Amino acid sequence: MKSGTFFVLFFILPVATEAGFWDIFDMFNKDDDLLSFNSKDLENDLRKSLFGQHIAVDTVLKAVSWFMRETDPPKALVLSIHGQTGVGKNYITKIIARNIYKLGLKSNHVHTFISGYHFPHEEMAEMYELQLRQWIHGNVSNFPRSMFIFDEMHPRLIDTIKPFLDYTDNIDGVSFNKAIFIFLSHTGEHIIGNVTLDFWRRGCNREEIQIQSEGMETQIFEYLFNDKNNGFWHSSLINQHLIDHYIPFLPLELKHVHQCVMAEMGHLNMTQDYDLAYKVAKDMPFFPEEEKVFAVKGCKTVRQKMVLYLKLQ
Ligand SMILES: *[C@@H]1O[C@H](CO)[C@@H](O)[C@H](O)[C@H]1NC(C)=O
Ligand SMILES: *[C@@H]1O[C@H](CO)[C@@H](O)[C@H](O)[C@H]1NC(C)=O
Ligand SMILES: *[C@@H]1O[C@H](CO)[C@@H](O)[C@H](O)[C@H]1NC(C)=O
């Protein structure tokens, strides 16, 4: 009997070490694991996939790369992304996620909350607060490198989240310092639009717009402070310096929408037709009334528009 066991061990051990026995054991978990992060890959992905957003590309590249490199960051990474519809706010979360997790946005470690969908009933706010606190705590305690995306954050819930964003060693034995929180919001879109339009009218190069240009960051702060719907929660975040980066997304011009159409043709495995793409882009609505410089819906609905130009096979 003893020698039998010995024989089995003798037989299995070399095989086990060779073939990564423990990998097979871990297989189900491993499928939804972290990628080994590479900032060059993130940079290429951002530059290739996101159009007309030089501030966002630079800021996200630096912020995420430094954060992923740090073995012991002092707090969670917190990004607040602002801009109008269709300019790439959701898309950049996808790019970040697919450079961190093998399954990208589909990873069980990425949690997206859409205010109107996940927290629809005002009278149930207390229940949502409790639930959200447990979810964040539970998920980060299982997997420290978790990511939470809030699309139009509900003002009431910010107090629930605030402790997780702060400089703390731990909350009930769990450290949140490896987690990533991203807020997406329309707040400030008019300020961003005005600054961008102003540059355009003066004939300046769009790429020269910086977050400090014409006090854009200060203006966004002030707007966040004073906006009746958002002021309360944002002001407490601003006062306590819990948000690491405010990232403005600029309105898109015709050439960027054209790039979106070309990319969309690629995704649909069509031959990329430069002139057709131009027609489709030109057909989107633009503002302001006189100059028609910026796309009202950004690149949103570009695909639907394009379908109208295609001949049925
Ligand atoms: C993690 O978050 C999800 C919601 O995204 C929730 O359904 C789940 O219960 C949470 N897990 C834990 C362990 O709290
Ligand atoms: C943007 O500019 C327009 C016209 O100059 C002005 O009416 C509007 O108040 C500005 N918006 C913001 C948020 O500054
Ligand atoms: C495009 O082609 C690739 C590779 O041939 C395929 O994996 C993908 O599903 C196709 N996409 C569409 C939208 O047809």
UniProtKB/TrEMBL annotation:
Q: Which SUPFAM superfamilies match?
A: P-loop containing nucleoside triphosphate hydrolases
Q: By its UniProt entry, which Pfam families does this protein fall under?
A: TOR1A_C (PF21376), Torsin (PF06309)
* GO biological process assignments: nuclear membrane organization; protein localization to nucleus
- Which UniProt keywords are given for this protein, alphabetically ordered? Signal
Q: Which GO terms describe its cellular component?
A: endoplasmic reticulum lumen; nuclear envelope
Write down the superkingdom of origin.
Answer: Eukaryota
Q: Which GO terms describe its molecular function?
A: ATP binding; ATP hydrolysis activity; kinesin binding
According to the entry, every stretch annotated as the Torsin-1A C-terminal domain falls at 252-309
The record's annotation in InterPro entries points to: P-loop_NTPase, TOR1A_C, Torsin
Leader sequence segment: 1-19
Family affiliation: Belongs to the ClpA/ClpB family. Torsin subfamily.
The protein's name in its UniProt record: Torsin-1A-like
